[in-house]
Amino acid sequence: MVLHKMKRSFLRRFCILLSVILIVTTVSQQLYGYGTSQMSIEGNDDLMNPTDKLEYRDALSKSPFRLLYHKIDGLLRKTELDSDIDISQNERALLSSWDQGNKLNQCKLLFSSVYESESLNWSNQQLFEESENYEGYDVSPSLISERMRIYNYCILQSMLNVKDLFDFDFFKQKNIDAWDYQVRMFPFLRQDFDKENQYLYPEIFDISNNEMVSKPKLKLTPLEFNRDFWRQYKTLAKGKGIVTTLHSKELDFFYRQLKVLQKLDNKLPIYIVSSDGDITDNHKNELFTQVKETTQQVYVVGCSQILNPSFSQKHLKSFLNKWVAILFNPLEEVIFMDADAVPLISVEDYFKYEDYKESGLYVFKDRVMPHKLATERCIAMLHFVEPSAEENSLLGENSMVSTCKSVKTIKKTLMAKGVYDNFFEKAHLHQVDSGLVILNRKKKLNAMLMSFLLHLLPETQVCFHGDKELFWIGPLFMDEPFSVHPTDPGLAGQIFVRNNENEVQNQICSSQIVHSDLNHNILWVNGGLKVCKVRDSEVNDFSSFPDYFRQRYKDENNLKSLYNAPLYFEGLIIPNPSSSPWFQTRECSMFAYCSTVSIGNEGNKDTFIRFNHDQSERYNSIAALWSS
Fold it and tell me: Which DSSP category does 600 fall into?
């Protein structure tokens, strides 16, 4: 089967060249010549119509799949291998039996190929450094994604004993074991501790009861647990709850969020995950004072004991802390909320979404802003994150997507296809609002690890605004389904009416993003519930645009009073990019947007809702509470 697929792959070899030509010559015709997406063909049926077959990119020269593919190809064809490729008799036996599907043997070869294709000193740490170690912006994303899919195939999605995986002459001769592979793969994990006597496990402090939570009693020895950390830590995940991460400067946002959760009668535990020990004992005492006024159960998860301190100090900043919270909390099912995200329904209702139950990951859309475009380079880079022809030949054609065809393919997964099309076909940069994400950690650990590793790459950080898009890009290239809320986000606030001769215009301006259901009931708000959440924004605004703000608001005190007022829920606009687009204003440090809807215009497809009395009263009571 592998040999037959290798013969077929020669027909695919020009695909990447064709893709590059399309990128250069057809940018003006919907970036890279992308056409209409079609359903992908699952399975490896050689009798399917050739036009329906997925086309894949070639593996790069440093790819472990390229090396392994070349070895098997040479042995099967009984041709001479390159002089610099040395194959032992033991390895030769494993290579010749690849098609027999012995996963243990396959994974021994896959892991050894990771070392051989680079060097014995390989580490993902090298890819995270801003240096010239790797020529071309495509190499690091390609290597990191291939290594993660190998780890997923051999460890996360298998029952193989990691000790057995490294019981191979290649590893014994070079003193390589499972721990060595893990620290190279995940350099953010702590390495300088007694791994044979201490468990790699976070410290969890119960704020509500002002005490440390005991670590679970494990049957495995510390070494057995530590060298297979992700798979073993995943088995400990249990229960449902809320997870957030914040800097100590954001505790005020959390206290406001806590009051809202209390009003909503939340019964789920809340975990604050800290990566750098920023939540000190003094902060815990302050938290205890706030929490004891509620019935909420709050914990602080300290990850400094399980993270590499030098790596954390250098790399785990700002948005990257969100992945630490996602990966190291102790829950199985998680509602992740930014500190300034405000739910307006019972949070337990989020777990009831059928699409979430089916996929295990549910995200909400970002503002629809067609004029904000992803760069050509960034979209081209992601082409190298997808599996190559060699990878698919060796591990099976399970790819959710191939961008290497002028007419691309993707499995139809609810609204996920729309997100894919908007980014890869239309080059729309903003797709997902990650202020609130619902996920099953046990099901999506592999995808979230992929997202985290991709986000750590300098090449990726310049392409996206924070973590947002990685919540769907990671799962996409791990072949993991995800669901996207069907309703576009909108603006809620006071309605400003302008009467013209033939129509009435209604305008709403807001610094928040509002997410609603199909019946236009608000589910949650990103950005807090004051008119402007940005501290001292009135000072910054008058300093940046003095004439503009003096003309409209006279002085800083007037603007400060306006900014500190609770958001007033009178109506909702879901902007239509063609007729009522989001447009940015200078207010609230330029976090504010407006949209204007014309009423009475025939054929108008804009969404404008005036809240009824009960809706307005409920939303405004929560806004007043959050702002107090």
Answer: S
Contact 603, 509 (CB under 8 A): no
Q: What are the per-10-residue average pLDDT scores of the chain (628 residues)? A: 47 40 34 29 31 69 93 75 66 84 92 90 90 67 97 97 94 95 98 96 96 96 98 98 93 97 99 88 95 97 94 90 97 98 98 96 96 93 93 83 56 68 92 98 98 95 93 94 95 94 91 98 99 97 98 98 98 94 97 92 80 98 98
Whole-number pLDDT of residue 603: 62
Residue 156: helix, strand or coil by DSSP?
Answer: helix
Hey, what are 424's tokens? 């890869």
Q: What is the DSSP-derived secondary structure letter of residue 253? A: H
What is the spatial distance between Cα 411 and Cα 292, in angstroms, rounded to a whole number?
48
Q: Which residues of 144-180 are buried (b: 16+ CB within 10 A; e: fewer)?
A: bbbbbbbbbbbbbeeebebeebbebebbeeeebebbb
State CA 79 to chain mean position distance: 44
Q: Which of 434, 622, 414, 614 is nearest to 515 (CA)?
A: 434
pLDDT of residue 403: 65
Whether the Cβ atoms of residue 341 and residue 524 lie closer than 8 Å to each other: yes
Residue 262 main-chain phi, psi, to 5 deg:
-65, -45
The SS3 of residue 6 is: helix
* ∠ CA 507-342-491, rounded to 5°: 15
State the greatest distance between any 2 C-alpha atoms of the chain, in Å, as a whole number: 87
Report the chain's terminal Cα–Cα distance, integer Å: 67
Name the H helices within 193-250.
Answer: 222-226, 229-235
Beta strands in 393-527 (DSSP E): 401-402, 409-410, 432-440, 483-484, 491-493, 496-499, 504-510, 513-516, 522-526
* Sign of the Cα pseudo-torsion (369, 363, 611, 617, in order): negative
Residue 48, pLDDT score = 28
d(CA 457, CA 71): 30
Q: How far apart are CA 59 and CA 71, in angstroms?
A: 14
Token pair of 117, please?
A: 């294709």
For residue 471, the Cα-to-chain-centroid distance in whole angstroms is 2
CA distance 188 to 316: 9
- Mention every residue, 6+ apart, whose C-beta is less than 8 A from residue 97: 105
Identify the bridge partners of residue 363 per DSSP, sorted by sequence position: 484
For residue 152, the 8-state DSSP code is I
C-alpha to C-alpha distance for 187 and 100, rounded to whole angstroms: 34
Burial 224-238 (b: 16+ CB within 10 A, else e): bbbbbbbbbbbeebe
Cα–Cα nearest to 365, from 592, 532, 517? 517
Handedness of CA 532, 534, 537, 540 (dihedral sign): negative
Cβ contacts of residue 509 below 8 Å, gap of 6+?
491, 493, 496, 585, 587, 592, 593, 594
What strands, in cross-sheet order, belong to the sheet with 583-584?
A: 496-499, 504-510, 593-599, 583-584
Q: Closest Cα to residue 161, out of 97, 228, 113?
A: 228
The answer to whether 134 and 79 are in contact (CB under 8 A) is: no
Spatial CA neighbour of 570 closest among 627, 509, 524: 509
DSSP string, 537-586: HHHHHHHH-HHHHHHHHSSHHHHHHHHHSBP--SEEEE--TTTS--EE-S
The 8-class DSSP code of residue 81 comes to P
pTM of the predicted protein model: 0.90
